[in-house]
Design a protein that fits this description.
Helix content: 10-25%
Order of helices and strands: HEEEEHEEEE
Number of strands: 8
Shape: elongated
Low-confidence stretches: 18-26
Strand content: 35-45%
Structural class: alpha+beta
Mean pLDDT: 79
Radius of gyration: 23 Å
CATH architecture of the largest domain: Sandwich
């Protein structure tokens, strides 16, 4: 084999490997992304904003993600001073269907903590909704929000 054909063969092999690894990296990046769950809690019986009114927020509330029939806590955060919360999970895209169908956000802080006229028992719960996927650097970020909180007298 001549010297030139040797280098051409080597170049073809290197380019093929580079293309293959790039495709594999894209697949890994897509599958092993991050899941970002965010929302705002309001100090109401259902934790949602009342349209047309200045609705106070629910600061320093414990927000947990419960999954499965047993309600296993996967993650927990506290809302900030403005009632906003943000939860970041390192969950593969393969689990997205499981998260959306088997998990919910639960606010365990009693409503009476933000308004004395609200119940001192129960919790707020909301199913999850996929908004969109975005790319942040090398990672695919799945953005999820609560559908709408509802009051559960007993949890």
């Amino acid at each position: 084999m001549s010297f030139t054909s040797y280098y051409i063969s080597l170049l073809i092999i290197v380019l093929t490997m580079a293309t293959l690894s790039s495709c594999q990296f894209d697949l890994i990046r897509t599958l092993l992304g991050l899941t970002h769950i965010q929302g705002t809690l309001y100090c109401t019986l259902n934790g949602n904003m009342i349209y047309g009114l200045l609705t106070p927020t629910f600061p320093n509330a414990a927000v947990e993600m419960h999954c499965g029939a047993a309600g296993t806590v996967i993650s927990s955060v506290k809302s900030d001073a403005t009632g906003r919360f943000s939860m970041l999970l390192d969950a593969p895209q393969l689990l997205l269907s499981f998260l959306l169908n088997n998990c919910s956000l639960v606010v365990t802080t009693p409503l009476v903590n933000c308004n004395g006229a609200l119940p001192s028992f129960g919790a707020l719960a909301s199913p999850l909704q996929l908004i969109r996927n975005t790319f942040l650097g090398l990672f695919n970020v799945t953005n999820i929000i609560p559908v709408g909180f509802r009051f559960l007298p007993i949890l």
